[in-house]
Structure formats: C-alpha cells, structure tokens
Specification:
InterPro entries: Stereocilin-rel, Stereocilin_LRR
Pfam family, one: Stereocilin
Protein name: Otoancorin
Number of helices: 63
Structural class: mainly alpha
Strand content: under 5%
Distance between the termini: 41 Å
Keywords: Glycoprotein, Membrane, Signal, Transmembrane, Transmembrane helix
GO cellular component, one term: cell surface
Shape: globular
Number of strands: 7
Length: about 1100
C-alpha cells in the first residue's frame, strides 16, 4: 500500500522514461484508491476529462475513468505514455489519500518535466494531483517555505482553471498566509482571471480586503470568510465604513481584481497612492487587461490620475500606460496628433458606451481635412469603424488590398464590411480558403453566394476555418456548410466538421451519415434536433452515466425515457454529471431527472428526506432541489439548514415557474432556517441591499444609487427622476444598460421570463441626457439633436418625438445611422421622420446602393411597398439582415421579396437551400402557390432556419405541406424532426396534431406553441399536453387555454409545475398579483423573487 503521492511520483518518473522509449504499450492499468472522498474523485475526473476535450469539461477520454475506488487507464497509445517496468507491478495496488513528502517530490517532478513532455501526457497526472494540492494549500500552506508554496499553487492550477467552488474559497484563511504568500496566490489567480466565475472573483477580492484590514488597520470587516464560512467571534474593533485600504502595493496585488472594487471605494484612493501604482512597472500590463471597468470606475481612476500625475497632452509617453483607462478619455481636443495616434491602439477592446464617440473624435482628428488613404486606415486601426460609408467607399481596391492585414483585425459593422469586401473582391478573386482567411473580420461582408461557391473539400481542410466562422452570420455559416457538403459525403462531414459550423448541418444530412460511436460526436456544438437524432441512434437500448459524461452538447437529445432506464445505484452519479453539464439541459430534462433521483433515494430507506443528513444533502446537485415536492421540502430536518441554504444560494431560481407553489415554500423554509443562532449573524448583511426600499429616491446618495444596480429597474421613470444626484444616476443607468444582454427575439413565457424590463431605465436615461431639449420649440429646430446624444441613448432613442427626429442635420443622421438603425421599437410616425432624413441625406430609395440599403437596418420598413420595389436587394444577405426587424407588413414583405426575385433572376422553384434559409420572415410574403413551388431538397436542407418564421395561418399550412413532402406524415415525425421543423408545426391540422407521439412533445419549439390556432391545440390529449414540458406548456396563451377542458388545463398546470388552474393563470393581471410598475418590471415577479433570493444568495457565503 502506497500513498497517492507515491503513485504520482512513480508515474512521473515512468512518464519521463517512457517518452524516450519504444517498448510495447500496456493495454490497461488499474489502481485502487482509499480515503478519497467522492467529491475529490468527481473533481479529479472532471479535471482529467478536460485534458482530452480541448479544455472543455463536457467530454471524457474513453481511456480514462475514475470510480468510487478505482482509477483506470486503458488503450494507452502515444502521445500517452508507454509504462515501463516496474510500472506493471503497480497494477492493482492501493493508494491512500495522503499528502506526504513524496507528494511534494511528485509535484516537483511533474513541474520539472512540464516543459519537455507533451500536454496530453502531463495533463492527466497534473489534474489528478490538483485537488490534493489545493486542500494541502488550505490546510497547511501557510507553514511551508516559499518554494513549496509556489509548488502547491502550480499543482492546484488545473482546479483553478476549472473554476474553484465558492465553498473552497470560503476556506481561505484570513491569518494563515503572510503578505508574500497572499501576493503569490493572487498572482496565480490573476493569470487565470478570465476563467474564474464572477462569484469566485468577488470572494477573492473580499478575502484580500479582509486580510488588509486585519494587518494594516487591526480592524474587522465583520464575519470572517475563513474556516469554511463558520461563524467565529473576531476580537478586533469594527472597521470604519470608509476604510482607505487601497494602497499602491495592495492595488498591485489585486491586479485585474481592481475592476471589481466599487466606485465609492475607488473614490477614496489617495492620488499619490494611485500615481505610485500607475508608475509601477506592472501597472501597464494590469490596466491593459481591465476592459471590464464600468464608466464610473474608469472615470474615477482616470480623473484621479489626471489630477495627480498624468498629463497626456504634454507627456505622450504616459499614454501607453493607460491601457483600458484610455477608453474613458474625453479631452481629445487637448491632444497633439502624435498623442492621438498613440491613444488609438488602446481602444481595440473597449466596451464602454462612450467609446463610439471617442473613436469618432480621434478619427476626425487624425484624418483632418486630407483624403482617406491606406496609411490613414492603418493608423486608425480600431477607430476605423467611426468612418462613414461614403468615406470607406472612397478607398480604392488597391488601397484595401495593401492595408488588408490591418483592416482584417477591425470590428466592422456589416454594411461597412460589405462595402470594403465588395471593392476588394472586384480586384482579388477568392480562389482558395486561404484567400478567405486572410480577410479576417472583413469576411462578414462577403456574400453567402461567394462563400457557397468555394470548394468544399478545401474548406474542410483549411486552417482557421472555425475562427473565420465566428465572424460570420448564421446565413453565411450555412453557405459554408452547404459548400462543404456538396463535395464531402455525410459521414466524412460528421467526422471532420467542428465548432459553430456543426449546428448548420441539416438533419437530413445527419440522417444519411454513419454514427457508430460516441467519439464521432464528442466536443461539437450540436443543436437540439441534431442531438435528439444522434442520441437515439447511439443509445436506443439505454444509457449509462459514463455515456452521459461524454455527450457534451448532445446531452440535449437525452429523453426522459433514457434517464428512467438508468439503475437506482447510479442515479446520484448521474445527477452529478448532469449538473456539471446543466447548460445543455432543458427544464423538462431536469424535472424528470430529479423525479428519477428522488424515487431512487426513497427506495434506499423509509422517510429518506425526513432523516437526511448534511453529507447526503451535499451529494445532491443544487439545481435538483428546485424539483423537490412540497412534502419532501417540509420534511427536511433543521440540521441540514446550513447546507440547504448554501445550495439554494447557488441556484438560478428563474428555473422555477413564478407561480410555482415551491417558491413560497422555499421562502418559508429559508425563514425557518434563519432563526438558527449560527446563521443569524449573516442575515443583516444578506438583506442590506433591501434597506434602500425604506427611503425615498430623492434622499439616495451616490453610493446608494450605485449599490442598487439592477434593482433600479423596479422603479418607474417618474420615481427615478426625483433622484438628486443626476450625474451618478446617469452613469449608473448607462453602465446598467450596457451590461445587460439584448432581449430575446422570441419572448419566453412569463413563468420563466428572466429578461429584466429596462424600459423605465431607458426612459429615465433619455430625460437625463436631453433635459435641455424639452425647453426647445421642436418645429422651429433652433438646436438639433446631437450625435453624442444619439450614441449615448442607444435603444432609448425611441423617446424622441417625430418632430425632434426631423430636426437632425444630414450629417448627424448619417453619422448616427448605425445606432438608429439598430433600434427596433420606433413607432410609425417616428419611422416616417427618419425616412425623411434618409431621403434628404441620400435621395430617393431607387438610388441606394446595396450597402446603404443594408445600413438602413430596421428603418427600412418605413418605406412603402412601391418604394421597397425600387431598392437594391439582389443579395439574400440583405433580406436576412433586416428580416428580424419589427414593422414589416405582409404587403411590404411581398414587395421586397418580389424585388429580390426580380433582381436575382430567381423564382420560388429555383431558390437554393441557402437562399431559402436567408429569406426568413420574407417567406411570409409568398403566396400559397409560390410556397408549393419550393424545391423539396432545398427545403430539407433549410428546414431548421425556415422553421423560425411566423407567418399567417394559410402560409404556415402551405409550409407544413412542404414539410410532409420532405419528412413524411405528421404522425411519424420524430423528436428530432419536430425540432427541425420548428414553427411550421403550427400549420398542422387538428387531426394531425392528435397523432403526435407524446414522447416527442418536449422537442416542439416553444415559439411554435402560441402560433397554433386555439381550436387545433384543443385537439391535443391530456397525455400529450402533460408531456409538453414546462416551457412549452407555459407558452400556451390565454386564448388557447380558454377553449381547453378542465382536464386539459390541469394537465398543462402539471407540465408547467404550478398547482393552479390554467384558466386563472392566463389572465394578464392575476388575482392577488400587483400590477406591473409603470415603465418598470413586474413587481411580484422580480421584487418578490429578490426578497426571497437575496438572503439565500449570501447566507452561507457572507464574509
């Protein structure tokens, strides 16, 4: 019996020897493990799986596995090691979980050979050692010498890259590490900052802050984070509220973590300390990566530097040290030409809202009154997108060719890339994939027709294809895939295609491919329909946890029937694997997996939940707790409260339906747990953000405004405009809007709606930004809208009146068009005003270039049918880009579709798959006769993208007939085919819907449900409705539910997970529910959830 450390050491020696030998390989080796907790083994296996999955934990290598007591390497071939004697003697030996002297020797050996041994050989051994290295670091790291401390940190790096769990970080000692060790540790965390989860970053920041407070100020900031989060009394006095803890050395230790410090604490930094840090040799590289600074943070730091030690106007050398702070510079007029040129390269990764205006000012300064040349384009670099279409069009094809290396690295808007690519391709022909790769970001301007003409076999072998594909639109990616599959058979395509391009493969193509092993589908980004087909083909007889571990994105296709086939003893292991891959799971899969797990646990002993202990609850993945039954939740004993609350704090509660009876039950359970003495000290900190509800907005300080953050969306605009600190409010609202994801194109059901309603934020920002405008007489236009206002407002530009929009100058309209064209909410009168601006700037639509048509974006629906019949739309890429815009009527869709067919010399029957896929909503402009003429093969290859359309019932019926021709009768449609067909299912008759297989119902596209006429939906059986799954069932509209029977409504409620009648659910203002705040979010849906969630989020994790 030897220790795990000895095992690692011997393997390290053997690996070093084996790499230089050619002796026969050993087919399999097994080692028995003792004393390793299950969590260690699961973590180790996750880490090792990354060694074979390009850094992703979604797949595992079939030659490596860890069970509860055994680790096994099988089928080891190079570059894996060939084990030499005496290694065969190790087979079957027992290894103990013990960090002894051999452990340090093994780690040192691994580190010493890390530069000479291939990653695939070193990575598994390093990964197996990582959890033990981390636990040793936490347990006794403070007592080891600096060399061994650094060695332990190196050993733990695979675990750090994976993302340390919050409970591990809670065990960081407050006083166990000295300042030097803490600095060393933070240096490693800075190296891996980008892969750390946000919660881990916050924990590390608070850890450093606590340590500094103790060491430098001999005070306490509250409950310590160390000792696993256990409460202990700190004898030190409580720190002052505004502790000036950010000294130069501390900022150097924090590095990129400085971007997490609240603006109020940044304001407290003394200028001399900040200047000392700025002049530090490391500050340039640190600021160079801090592109996640928000406006308030960036302006605060920059203004302090400008006051204390920085004068870019007179010291050009200091500009290069600004890094991300350059994004917030706002005094371009004071800069020399050389200083302006020095500032430009620093702006490439800026994400703050004001960057467009800064780039534009710098571009104007550099360009001056001279012509636009290739030298100027190279100088502008990341600021080149600030140039207008007219300016870019003045470049010659030769200039573009000569400056291609620089232009290929710029983030262009689509219409700009189209203008440059069109001119470039007029001189240079793309004869090979390499020619395409050289274009870099300009490829987004290459038409799908050109992409589709490339040789498929060459494309498949091209280096950099996946990187190029990331710059392409879905239609362009579809064109590339179609070009490849034209020259490559389906099976070879399945083997070789990777990344985002895989999702563009038609189901019809997959059905023709040979799929005989999981290895063929591993490590690829499948869509749900593809996943359903592949899983059914591979696992028709059942599935095991080891199979699930290797599926990755194909996990989307695992049905509840397959999960039910897993044996009870394997369900906890299965649940842990599913949790690790939860990003791929649907609500329905989670629900049936939890149901299976609860049944398996209940069969182990009577009253399992009532007698559950902390260890058993710890083994249950957090997300599964959202599927507890009410009796199970209420029976949980008080002793598991700390574990329960900690797990719930890590759960995304939007996975629970808003009206689920489990929500109030969880709240009551949480409140019951809060009365426990051990947890009470956490409560005040957990609910402190809610204290501001008790004060009026007019009394809020700048710090309060910043601390509320997203909670500001709960207030209507009138209320927010009473805040006295308007400067801070404007900065906070600007940061909030820029940090939120765009709203989904297809709104989700109210029960699972996670999108924060930002309408009140936009309205308030508009009033704050344009207060001077309201004193003007709009008709006379004494002062027009400014470009700065348009760029700052973004989507909030919808609040301009039509008269105000008419007051813009031509230059302001053209310069601000990219922002205005992206707004998808203008009313008809506003669109009319903007249409007038377009005509003033460019003339009638008959004279618009393809790039100008594309640039109009969501302003294009402002033109009438006659005008749309004159615009340049010979490329389907233009239609694809503007199809998602609101404002399209059937008449206008038909007019633009006919214009496209006319200019491209096509008919409905001659449309290819790529063109059909690119039409999007303009398919709705076809007549039923035209739809019937669509080529069947083209439809098969474009079905997934066609399935996203939402057309009138008659057209949906015609498309359904085309789907039947392509995939067979509705009654035979499989889960994968239902997913592929998408919204077209809404064209099926009541008789056809009744024949759908209940097991396939969860794979219906949620967006298809509300499109089904109510009388046809009513034909679904109780069994079918119950099988829809939570999200699909929640998509049923009030009109649809009104014609259902009582039994059908109850089936829907069961599917959603709410114990109420659907007839009550569908009312807009539900009984007992407060109406939404004007301009804000649903008070019960957001505030109610926050009141319950905020205490849970911080209870067990509060520092």
């Amino acid at each position: 019996m030897v220790s795990a450390a000895a095992w690692l050491w011997i393997l390290s020696v053997a690996a070093q020897q084996a790499w230089t030998t050619s002796l026969p390989m050993m087919p399999a080796m097994n080692f028995t493990l003792q004393g390793f907790p299950p969590a260690y083994l699961r973590t180790a296996e996750r880490l090792v799986s990354r060694c074979f999955g390009n850094g992703k934990p979604s797949t595992a290598h079939p030659g490596f596995s860890v069970s509860s007591s055994t680790v096994q390497f099988v089928n080891m071939t190079r570059p894996l090691p060939v084990f030499l004697p005496p290694l065969p003697l190790l087979n079957g030996m027992i290894f103990m979980n013990k960090a002894d002297e051999n452990f340090f020797r093994s780690l040192e050996m691994l580190r010493n050979i890390s530069g000479d041994v291939p990653h695939s050989l070193l990575c598994p051994l390093h990964s197996m050692a990582a959890p033990l290295a981390w636990s040793t670091l936490l347990g006794s790291g403070g007592a080891v010498d600096p060399a061994r401390f650094r060695l332990l940190l190196w050993g733990a790096e695979p675990l750090i890259r994976l993302g340390l769990q919050l409970d591990s970080l809670s065990a960081l000692p407050m006083a166990g590490f000295n300042a030097g060790q803490r600095e060393t540790m933070m240096g490693v965390f800075n190296q891996h900052y980008d892969v750390l989860p946000p919660g881990d970053r916050e924990k590390l920041l608070h850890w450093v802050k606590h340590c500094v407070a103790m060491e430098m100020f001999n005070c306490s900031m509250g409950q310590p984070m160390g000792n696993g989060g256990k409460s202990e009394k700190d004898p030190r006095v409580k720190c002052l509220p505004r502790l000036r803890w950010l000294k130069a050395h501390t900022m150097a230790v924090l590095g990129r973590f400085l971007s997490l410090v609240p603006p109020s604490e940044l304001e407290d930094i003394q200028s001399d300390e900040l200047c000392c840090f700025f002049n530090h040799s490391l500050s340039e590289s640190m600021f160079g990566n801090m592109y996640d600074l928000n406006h308030s943070q960036g302006r605060s730091l920059l203004s302090k530097l400008m006051t204390g030690c920085l004068d870019p106007a007179h010291n050009e050398e200091s500009i290069g040290r600004l890094g991300a702070l350059a994004c917030f510079y706002d005094n371009v007029g004071a800069l020399s030409d050389n200083a302006s040129r020095s500032l430009l390269p620093l702006l490439s990764d800026c994400r703050n809202p004001g960057i467009k205006q800064l780039q534009r000012q710098l571009a104007e300064k550099v360009l001056g009154s001279g012509p636009l040349t290739k030298q100027v384009m190279v100088t502008l670099g990341p600021a080149a997108p600030a140039l207008s279409l007219a300016q870019l069009s003045s470049l010659s094809a030769a200039d573009i060719q000569d400056s291609l290396a620089s232009l290929a690295r710029v983030s262009w808007r689509r219409e700009q890339a189209s203008a440059l690519a069109s001119k470039y391709l007029s001189k240079v022909q793309i004869s090979s994939p390499d020619d395409l790769m050289k274009m870099g970001t300009l490829v987004k301007g290459v038409s799908s027709a050109v992409l589709g003409s490339l040789k498929g076999d060459q494309l498949l072998r091209a280096s950099g294809l996946e990187e190029t594909a990331r710059n392409l639109s879905p239609l362009q990616r579809k064109a590339l895939v179609n070009a490849i599959q034209r020259d490559v058979n389906a099976s070879a395509l399945l083997q070789s295609l990777a990344g985002s391009l895989v999702g563009c493969l038609a189901l019809h193509t997959l059905q023709q491919a040979s799929v005989d092993s999981v290895g063929v589908i591993q490590g690829k980004s499948w869509n749900r329909g593809q996943a359903a087909h592949l899983v059914k083909k591979l696992f028709s007889r059942g599935i095991q946890p080891s199979d699930i571990r290797m599926l990755g994105s194909a996990l989307q296709g695992v049905t509840c029937e397959l999960i039910d086939s897993i044996g009870d003893p394997s369900m906890l292991e299965t649940a842990a694997i599913l949790f690790e891959n939860k990003a791929w799971l649907s609500q329905h899969q989670l629900a049936c997996s939890a149901k299976k797990l609860w049944a398996a646990l209940n069969r182990t002993r009577a009253d399992y939940f009532g007698s559950m202990n902390n260890s058993e609850l710890q083994d249950v993945p957090p997300v599964f707790l959202l599927h507890l039954t009410l009796p199970q939740l209420s029976s949980l004993p008080a002793r598991v409260c700390p574990c329960l609350l900690e797990k719930l704090s890590a759960v995304n509660l939007s996975l629970l339906p808003r009206r689920s009876p489990l929500r109030p039950a969880l709240r009551e359970k949480a409140f019951a747990c809060l009365v426990m003495p051990a947890l009470f000290p956490c409560v005040s900190k957990a609910i402190s953000p809610l204290h501001h509800w008790e004060t009026k907005p007019s009394d809020w300080s700048a710090e309060v405004v910043m601390s509320l953050g997203p909670l500001l969306a709960l207030f209507n605009s009138s209320c927010l405009r009473t805040v006295s600190n308007t400067v801070q409010l404007k900065d906070t609202l600007t940061d909030l809007l820029s940090s939120q994801p765009p709203p989904p194109l297809t709104p989700g059901p109210l029960d699972f709606d996670t999108y924060l309603n930002l309408s009140s934020i936009r309205e308030t920002l508009f009033h704050l930004s344009t207060s001077h405008q309201r004193t003007r007489r709009a008709v006379s236009c004494p002062v027009s809208l400014t470009l700065q206002e348009i760029l700052d407002l973004g989507d909030a530009n919808v609040h301009w009146s039509p008269d105000q929009l008419s007051c813009m100058s031509n230059k302001t309209f053209v310069d601000g068009l990219s922002t205005l064209a992206a707004v998808n909410g203008f009313a008809d009168q506003q669109l009319a005003a903007l249409k007038g601006q377009a005509i003033q700037a460019w003339g009638p639509p008959s004279g618009y270039s393809a790039e100008q048509t594309l640039a109009l974006g969501c302003l294009l629906p402002a033109f009438n049918s006659s005008e749309l019949g004159l615009v340049e739309v010979s490329s389907v890429d233009t239609l694809s880009a503007v199809a998602p815009c609101s404002g399209w009527t059937q008449e206008k869709r038909a007019a633009l579709l006919q214009r496209f067919l006319q200019q491209s010399l096509l008919t409905p029957s001659s449309l290819g798959a790529v063109q059909l896929a690119g039409l999007g909503g303009f398919l709705c402009g076809m007549s039923e006769t035209q739809v019937s003429q669509i080529n069947v093969e083209a439809y098969r290859l474009a079905a997934a993208m066609v399935g996203a359309v939402s057309c009138p019932p008659a057209i949906m019926g015609a498309l359904k007939s085309k789907a039947v021709t392509s995939f067979g009768d509705v009654k035979n449609w499989t889960a994968s085919e239902l997913s592929e067909i998408g919204n077209v299912l809404a064209g099926a008759s009541a008789a056809e819907l009744k024949t759908l297989d209940p097991s396939a119902m969860p794979f219906i596209s949620p967006s298809a449900i509300p499109l089904i006429p109510a009388d046809r939906l009513a034909a679904l059986s109780v069994t079918q409705l119950r099988a829809l799954g939570p999200v699909n069932a929640a998509m049923v509209t009030g009109e649809q539910a009104a014609v259902l029977s009582q039994a059908q409504r109850e089936a829907l409620s069961d599917a959603v997970g709410v114990a109420v009648e659907r007839a009550v659910v569908v009312v807009v203002k539900e009984t007992g529910t407060a109406a939404p705040l004007k301009g804000g979010s649903d008070q019960l849906g957001i505030l109610g959830v926050l009141v319950m969630v905020l205490p849970l989020l911080l209870l067990a994790l509060s520092p």
